[in-house]
Design brief:
Length: 149
């Protein structure tokens, strides 16, 4: 690798790391605004995206233990954000579904995040959507290739 290529790679890594940190900061601010922990906000978004999720799916998505997810779900249920419903496919399990207050938290999060993305997109010629989709696709492909090594 040439010095210029190394510098380019280092610059790309630094820029991507900055994006990851900025995203974490934004999620932190938006979760504080909603009055929930960042992992709870991520769980609410997951449940919203899927229509329902199991606690096991939430644990896997967030990288948490089942006990931590149980405690988080208990807090969100008490706060009226989501509910546990019987899982017809597993009588011992539960499905998590958003309640109207949880829907409102997710809607506010999405509206605020989308406004920020639209502002960045306008500032950069309207191609952010394509760049982000290409980045996500490439990252998934690279993750798959790395798993095969």
């Amino acid at each position: 690798m040439t010095a210029a290529a190394h510098d380019d790679a280092a610059d790309l890594m630094a820029a991507f790391t900055a994006v990851v940190r900025a995203n974490a900061s934004l999620v932190s601010q938006l979760s504080a605004r909603a009055g929930v922990h960042e992992n709870a906000l991520r769980a609410l978004v997951l449940v919203s995206d899927t229509g329902y999720s199991t606690p096991t799916e939430v644990a896997g998505y967030l990288g948490l233990t089942s006990g931590a997810v149980t405690n988080m779900v208990d807090r969100m249920s008490t706060a009226g954000l989501l509910e546990r419903a019987p899982n017809p496919a597993d009588r011992r399990g539960a499905l998590l579904r958003l309640l109207p207050a949880g829907d409102a938290v997710v809607a506010d999060y999405r509206q605020r995040y989308a406004a920020m993305l639209r502002a960045v997109d306008r500032a950069h010629g309207g191609e952010l959507h394509e760049v982000l989709n290409d980045l996500a696709t490439s990252l998934y492909e690279q993750a798959g290739a790395a798993a095969e090594d």
